[in-house]
Amino acid sequence: MNNRIVVFALTALSLFSSCGSKENEPEPEIPVVTPQTPFKTLNYLYSISGSKTVSGIHNREPNATPARWTEEMNTVAGKYPGLWSGDFLFQADNINNRQIMVNEAWNQWKKGAIINIMWHACNPALSQPCGWDSNGVLSELTDAQWTELITDGTPLNAKWKAMMDEVSVHLQFLEDKGVEVLWRPLHEMNQGNFWWGGRPGANGTRRLYQITHDYMTKTKGLTNLIWVWDVQDFSTLENDLVNYNPGEGYWDIAALDFYDGSGFSQGKYNAMVKAAKGKPIAIGECERLPTVEELTYQPKWTFYMGWSELVFERNTAAEMKALQNSSKVITLDEMPGW
Fold this sequence. Notes:
Blueprint: H1 9-18, H2 40-48, E1 53-54, E2 56-58, H3 68-77, E3 83-87, H4 92-96, H5 98-111, E4 114-118, H6 143-149, H7 155-176, E5 181-184, H8 205-219, E6 225-232, H9 237-243, E7 253-258, H10 266-276, E8 281-286, H11 292-297, E9 301-306, H12 308-314, H13 317-324, E10 329-330
Parallel strand pairs: 1-10, 2-3, 3-4, 4-5, 5-6, 6-7, 7-8, 8-9
């Protein structure tokens, strides 16, 4: 979003010293996992891991125009990306237009795109709708409120489940249409600026992720969700991949968001490969797109998702066109269809 939190020089330097010190280390040896999943999308990502990467872009608000940035990429680069992404969002008009967004997800699925949906959710301890501010997405919970949130049967826990009920209606709509969804709730779990993030350990953010997973899959019975566990590229990445991991049974894809300014370092890539243990990895968000050379040296990124308008601010038209036309990158016209 326009106000994405970007970590500048100090973080970049500290990351260089931690992950950057492993720049020349070979990629860790991880056994190949043969896909045996019920998802066509996930099996496809397994099949391309190590060879090709699906191009993608997010479509940020408004939900009234949920293909704006997908169309812009086609206009600039001459090809549609293979992954479309939308957001349930948090403002009144965007909440009211969630059905428009999922209608577009269905439309993109029929075209052969991979569908990614995320949710910048309001704080259940405050009000909904909300804003991108300290009373909304960027608000905080006290430790007591957090304990209440993750405790079954409490008012805050019930409020979160009621909010999940609201988005589950739309996810059920997509399931009924046969649409598989890369579902990325509570993204950037190690990002302390979001009300849900920045709480490591067993009873921290990963516990809320587990509650969310179990409620949506077991209570709501949703069977079309491919769970994406997502963190940001802070200097603490290697530790964060341990402290924020909800458990292998809770996620299907491990994604990393790139905003710290140091780019697609080999250290970050190696850390993700190690943490994924054979499962697909992905570039969950980025403003600066990877180069063909970077994808050649880091071949297990199964997709990248550029962040809406930031992509067009940080990359030239020539760079975007070259990437979209590379043999390493899969665009919509090259997708197998569902």
